């Protein structure tokens, strides 16, 4: 169990109930063909079918709904490579408040367009963490907006926990759960859901070799920031959060990594066999499963397909 | 009601029951965003999630299961631009019989690979109807195999009727049904399902301008063969079948056509908004709906997404 009092069974349940009117309970799909290739039973929780096309809708919605009336008046601000940006813009729009979104100028076009569609006010910056943070700080200072971090935020983590919670409710006997890790919002939320609702499930984190700060941090047992990430998995470029890391360190069995070629092969397998659209970041769990089949042999394995917002003009096939 | 005694309520029900163990009952999806764009309530019957990735599994399975024991010994043969080929190969494999598949040398790689995966014996030919037919005839003469036509076959039509039947069972109050038309197998089957199970539903056929033989035949009230088709909708290139045409002539309200640019735009809308993979041929119904919004305003509209077998290296985006 995590030691911090920020989290509890009650808080997880309350967050899920709070956001339910604003999210889809996403379906769980499976593929006989991919099971045969992997040698285990795979249960894909389809957050690519979530509102805004990604699980980030859950955390952003919970964070916005927990704002005070005074905070709501000045709106919210964040920096995000994409899905959290859309999620916060839509959650803010639903709540009738302003959303200021700082996006790297390299963000996929489809994600920028979606943020604007949801009424978000976009400010572009250089694609570095420092540029994102200083640009966001300027908006906080000028507008008095509340900063909603994409993952290093307790209310966001509580919101993200609802996806794994739903999966554990639908399938109470999952042996292993595999979760991609970027900043660690979904992973730390999923660990909380496991701790309280499916304690016998083992969790592995899945990470691209080209952004393996979680792997390094897990091995060193201290937070090592990500520098110069280089991977196709554009949702997993950031460093682990301060709030997320201790939960992850105590909660996962291991961090498994894979190369971009393996990510693209797993992505293609899901596209061709399941006929659903997923982002490269989503394919990382399947890639590490196919790379480490012995860890999963004949097990019931849950994994979250985190999002489906790809730029169709820049596919890796 | 169609005049031919080849079809009846009982035969449709029996065909559906016969194939049920071998097919998926496919889900019906909807999209708030696309409904808003179209100005009506769209119900997408997802045959892209069907076994082999297309509705053709239904008709091929019914045809194979209706063979005599004597016929089964010599196997089956067909010519197909793709999905019927995969379907017949897989249906034959399940029944433990041989499948000889004549494919145009221009068929998508992913479809050829799938036919071989299901144990089909592929013979390539020039991409003309004449070349297909003479090559298939040669195999009939040499092997004694039974020819299973992709659409001009009563058992195939009965099998295809099960998709619309399922949709009408799930949604008994569909105002309008829009169906793509190539050879007319799915369309004639859907008309039979409508006649017997949802008689108040109006049916429109949807066809690419570049292969508009159904439009021309419907206007002339006589079967006009397709010559030199030119469209991205590679599942809709063939001429209407002899058995299919009278059912279609009596059963549809009209044949609506659209251009390839409109097909690609509709396809992209489904990919981006619904996060599911569909073939260009599938997008023709949505394309004609978006082109003729006044016909569908505020109606409950059913449409079949016929398949998801696209060559990911040759996307039109």
Report on the structure:
2 copies of one chain form a homodimer. In chain A, 45% of the residues lie in helices and 15% in strands. Chain A is built from 14 helices and 10 strands. Chain A has helices at residues 9-19, 32-38, 56-65, 69-74, 83-95, 109-117, 129-143, 154-170, 185-197, 213-220, 244-251, 260-274, 284-291, 293-296, and strands spanning 28-29, 41-46, 76-79, 99-104, 121-125, 146-147, 176-180, 202-208, 254-258, 300-305. In chain A, the strands form 2 sheets. In chain A, strands 1-2-10-7-8-9 form a 6-stranded mixed sheet, sandwiched between helices. A 4-stranded parallel sheet of chain A has the order 5-4-3-6, sandwiched between helices. In chain A, strand 4, helix 6 (109-117) and strand 5 form a beta-alpha-beta unit. In chain A, helix 1 (9-19) packs across helix 3 (56-65) and helix 12 (260-274) crosses helix 13 (284-291). The model of chain A has no long low-confidence stretch (mean pLDDT 95). Chain A binds chain B through residues 48-49, 53, 110, 268, 271-272, 275-278, 308, 312-313, 315, 317, and chain B through 48-49, 53, 110, 268, 271-272, 275-278, 308, 312-313, 315, 317.
Defining key terms:
homodimer; 45% helix; 317 residues; Rossmann fold; 4-stranded parallel beta sheet; 2 domains; 6-stranded mixed beta sheet; alpha/beta
């Amino acid at each position: 169990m995590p030691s911090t009092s920020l989290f509890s069974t009650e808080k997880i349940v309350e967050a899920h109930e709070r956001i339910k009117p604003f999210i889809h309970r996403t379906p769980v799909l499976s593929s006989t063909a991919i099971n045969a290739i992997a040698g285990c039973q795979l249960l894909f929780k389809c957050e690519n079918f979530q509102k805004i096309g990604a699980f980030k809708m859950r955390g952003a919605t919970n964070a916005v709904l927990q704002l005070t009336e005074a905070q709501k008046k000045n709106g919210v601000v964040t920096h995000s490579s994409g899905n959290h940006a859309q999620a916060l813009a839509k959650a803010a729009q639903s709540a009738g408040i302003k959303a200021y979104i700082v996006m790297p100028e390299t963000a996929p076009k489809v994600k920028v367009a979606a943020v604007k569609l949801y009424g978000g006010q976009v400010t572009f910056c250089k694609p570095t963490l420092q540029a994102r943070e200083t640009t966001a700080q300027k908006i906080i200072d000028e507008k008095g907006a509340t900063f909603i971090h994409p993952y290093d935020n307790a209310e966001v983590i509580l919101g993200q926990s609802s996806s794994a919670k739903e999966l554990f409710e639908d399938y109470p006997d999952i042996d292993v759960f595999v979760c991609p890790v970027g900043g660690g919002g979904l992973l730390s939320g999923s660990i909380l859901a496991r701790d309280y609702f499916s304690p016998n499930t083992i969790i592995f984190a899945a990470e691209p070799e080209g952004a393996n700060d979680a792997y390094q941090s897990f091995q060193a047992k201290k937070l090592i920031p990500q520098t110069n990430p280089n991977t196709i998995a554009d949702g997993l470029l950031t460093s682990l959060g301060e709030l997320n890391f201790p939960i992850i360190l105590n909660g996962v069995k291991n961090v498994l990594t894979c190369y971009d070629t393996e990510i693209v092969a797993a992505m293609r397998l899901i596209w061709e066999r399941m006929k659903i659209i997923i982002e490269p970041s989503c394919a990382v769990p399947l890639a590490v499963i196919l790379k480490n089949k012995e860890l999963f042999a004949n097990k019931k394995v849950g994994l979250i397909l985190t999002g489906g917002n790809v730029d169709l003009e820049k596919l890796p096939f």
